[in-house]
């Protein structure tokens, strides 16, 4: 079974078509783990009448930590050497969290942050499943020990309690999957029931051994079919774990339950053959090695990942797994000195953990350095001092198109660009996915100003805040900022990929803001939004519109913008729509970190930089018909057919779509000149 589980996971990560649901292999691992660990604990309890917690944790430490520590160290060093320098601080933090089995909670938290939506996966992300297991085993042996002290060898109380845990965790999993998919996927509270199912099978193993052989054989085949079917039917769009996890979990439980009767002709006969046994023996190490190899080696080779390459790398990871199993994992846990006492095993575990944490911290304190050239023109000063600011900016953009080394005075620093957020973000006035209400009035610019101006839209409106704040302060306006992640201004319903459900929070928030704007009669409303479909457009019934032509989807988008303009149009209120800014096509700071000696490699052809140009043209046409001032952004970012990632000394983008605060602030006088004041 371990062979099936790890193979599904590896092939899924390698990108094999039709196996996008191979992540269910982790659920199979949870069931197996719950069964095996509970079996060992019950045997010890039956044999000795007690459970030695020290021995249990020492056994876990010497079994898991030698291999995982080696993988952690190699991954940290490999990331330092070959991954973009922008990523290393986060990876170093991941290593520390992984070392102490808390990375699942870190990933859950990061997963609901919009600014991490396009972030590359951590090479240590797969450690989340190990963290879930160890969190379960911090509690489970203690519970068994308490039950043994209170009720001796009677297991009814154990079964009842375990059933309650399974039911509570499953219900929680279903509910949290519907509300916040990342917390459901990575949470120990939503996965505990899967380990609990394995534990229940272990408790009932002696009775299951008496199953009729034909029934037991059929149960194993049905279970294997359920596991494989879930891997074939599920994909990234499947709300998971939730109720969908029941199929692979119960399938794995059925294989184990049927296997307790040792039936002839069952799936256990197939799973007991040499190839499956060998893969199963190395499954833990293969699971550890495959993911960092897939994440790091393509960068080391400077090639784009593809399925043939990924399969080759996965095979190489298996070779590494075999080597580490025989050279590290087995020698350490079977060493005579280690086996002499539980304290020694725990000491070895602590030493390994501290070594991994110290290496990660040392790397974070001395991060990779980037190539730097001479200082470039100070773009902000040059534009501000020019008699014709727009012409001066265009000249600097053209000169920057063929940039070699990063300027010594580039701002913000490439390594810190991901943290270059508008200054109002810490106040929580920019709402994240789950938020529908701001914590206060969110007034900026000149808070004492008599005239009111709104900045309204998604994060592509938010990245204009530095310019709008400066303009509002200059003119004595109160700037009311109303922005929300991935929630565009047009009245359309979209699907939230992070939640794997309709983005109802967006619709609720947008309706509230539109009503507020209508009620307050501001001097001006400046609107901006990205033009992408996000997770997909929805019809009135909440169904995803995956079929149909681009023209049909564009028509929905245009109608949504028209509805927004209509909702806030009022006498004395000027409406302004800033067309969407260009997209770099990749994470710009990561690209520059990887090519700091040739920044021009990170420039984007202008023909490819703007999302859905026909749609944007239709939206702009509709805006002008509605009496809205339309501001074109292309001349502020592109010259000729190129949109550079660095313009003079200013970094253009902070990630894969948002402009930096320095770039937005530099554009303030140009934006001010276009506003209908």
Features:
677 residues; Rossmann fold; three-stranded antiparallel beta sheet; 14 strands; 57% helix; 7% strand
Describe the protein in words.
By secondary structure, the protein is an alpha/beta fold. The chain folds into three domains: 1-365, no CATH class; 371-410, no CATH class; 415-582 and 607-633 and 654-673, Rossmann fold (3-Layer(aba) Sandwich). Helix content is 57%, strand content 7%. The protein is built from 28 helices and 14 strands. Strands 1, 2, 3, 4, 7, 9 and 11 form a seven-stranded mixed sheet that branches. Strand 13 and strand 14 (650-651) form a beta hairpin. Helix 3 runs parallel beside helix 15, helix 11 runs antiparallel to helix 12 (246-259) and helix 18 (379-385) runs antiparallel to helix 19. It starts with a helix and ends with a helix. It holds the Pfam family Acyl_transf_3. InterPro entries: Acyl_transf_3_dom (IPR002656), Acyltransferase_3 (IPR050879), SGNH (IPR043968).
Please give the number of β-strands. Answer: 14
**Basic shape:** elongated
Q: How much is the radius of gyration in Å?
A: 29 Å
Low-confidence stretches: none
**Subunit organisation of the chains:** single chain
SS-derived structural category:
alpha/beta
Please give the largest β-sheet. Answer: 7 strands, mixed
**Number of DSSP helices?**
28
Distance between the termini: 70 Å
How many structural domains in the coordinates? 3
Fraction of helical residues: 55-70%
The proportion of strand residues reads 5-15%
What average pLDDT do the residues reach?
A: 93
Domain Acyltransferase: 1-322
Transmembrane segments: 24-42, 63-83, 135-151, 158-177, 183-203, 215-234, 240-263, 284-301, 307-325, 346-364
Protein name: Peptidoglycan/LPS O-acetylase OafA/YrhL
Pfam families: Acyl_transf_3, SGNH
């Amino acid at each position: 079974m371990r062979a099936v589980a790890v193979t599904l996971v590896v092939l899924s990560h390698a990108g094999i078509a039709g196996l996008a649901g191979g992540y269910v292999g982790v659920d199979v691992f949870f069931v197996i783990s719950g069964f095996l660990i509970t079996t060992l604990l019950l045997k010890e309890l039956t044999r000795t009448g007690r459970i030695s917690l020290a021995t249990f944790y020492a056994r876990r430490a010497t079994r898991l930590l030698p291999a995982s520590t080696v993988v952690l160290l190699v991954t940290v060093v490999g990331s330092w050497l070959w991954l973009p320098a922008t990523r290393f601080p986060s990876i170093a933090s991941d290593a520390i969290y992984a070392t102490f089995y808390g990375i699942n909670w870190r990933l859950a938290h990061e997963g609901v942050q919009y600014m991490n939506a396009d972030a590359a996966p951590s090479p240590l992300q797969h450690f989340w499943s190990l963290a879930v297991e160890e969190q379960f085993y911090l509690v489970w042996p203690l519970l068994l020990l308490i039950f043994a002290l209170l009720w001796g060898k009677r297991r009814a109380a154990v079964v009842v309690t375990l059933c309650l845990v399974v039911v509570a965790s499953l219900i929680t999993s279903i509910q949290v999957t519907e509300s916040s998919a990342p917390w459901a996927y990575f949470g120990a509270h939503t996965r505990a029931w899967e380990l609990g199912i394995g534990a229940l099978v272990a408790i009932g193993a002696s009775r299951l051994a008496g199953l009729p052989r034909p029934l037991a054989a059929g149960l194993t085949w049905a279970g294997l079919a359920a596991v494989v079917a879930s891997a074939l039917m599920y994909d990234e769009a499947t709300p998971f774990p939730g109720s969908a996890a029941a199929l692979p979990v119960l399938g794995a439980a059925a294989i184990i339950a049927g296997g307790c009767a040792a039936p002839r002709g069952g799936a256990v006969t197939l799973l007991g053959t040499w190839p499956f046994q060998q893969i199963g023996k190395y499954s833990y190490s293969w699971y550890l090695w495959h993911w960092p190899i897939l994440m790091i080696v393509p960068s080391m080779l400077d090639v784009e990942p593809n399925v043939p390459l990924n399969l080759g790398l996965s095979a190489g990871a298996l070779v590494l797994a075999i080597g580490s199993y025989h050279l590290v994992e087995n020698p350490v846990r079977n060493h005579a000195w280690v086996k002499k006492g539980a304290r020694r095993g725990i000491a070895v575990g602590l030493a390994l953990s501290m070594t991994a944490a110290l290496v990660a911290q040392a790397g974070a304190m001395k991060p990779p350095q980037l190539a730097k050239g001479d200082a470039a023109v100070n773009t902000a000063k040059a534009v501000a001092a020019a008699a014709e600011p727009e012409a001066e900016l265009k000249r600097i953009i053209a000169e920057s198109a063929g940039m070699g080394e990063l300027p010594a005075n580039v701002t913000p620093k490439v390594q810190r660009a991901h943290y270059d957020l508008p200054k109002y973000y810490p106040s929580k006035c920019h709402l994240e996915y789950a938020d529908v209400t701001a914590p206060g009035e969110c007034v900026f610019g000149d808070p004492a100003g008599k005239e009111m101006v709104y900045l309204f839209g998604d994060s592509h409106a938010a990245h204009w805040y530095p310019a709008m704040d400066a303009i509002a302060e200059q003119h004595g306006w109160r700037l009311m900022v109303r922005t929300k992640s991935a929630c565009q201004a047009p009245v359309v319903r979209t699907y939230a990929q992070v939640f794997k459900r309709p983005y109802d929070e967006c619709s609720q928030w947008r309706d509230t803001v539109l009503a507020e704007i209508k009620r307050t009669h501001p001097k001006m409303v400046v609107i901006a939004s990205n033009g992408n479909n996000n997770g997909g457009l929805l019809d009135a019934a909440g169904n995803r519109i995956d079929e149909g032509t681009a023209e049909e989807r564009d028509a929905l988008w245009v109608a949504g913008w028209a509805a927004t303009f209509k909702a806030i149009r009022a006498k004395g209120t000027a409406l302004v729509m800033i067309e969407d800014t260009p997209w770099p096509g990749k994470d710009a700071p990561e690209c520059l970190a990887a090519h700091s000696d040739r920044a021009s490699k990170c420039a984007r052809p202008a023909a490819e930089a703007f999302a859905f140009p026909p749609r944007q043209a239709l939206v702009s046409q509709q805006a002008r018909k509605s009496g809205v001032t339309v501001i074109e952004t292309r001349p502020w970012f592109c010259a000729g057919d190129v949109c550079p990632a660095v313009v003079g000394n200013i970094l253009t983008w902070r990630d894969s779509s948002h402009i930096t605060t320095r770039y937005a602030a530099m554009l303030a006088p140009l934006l001010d000149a276009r506003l209908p004041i």
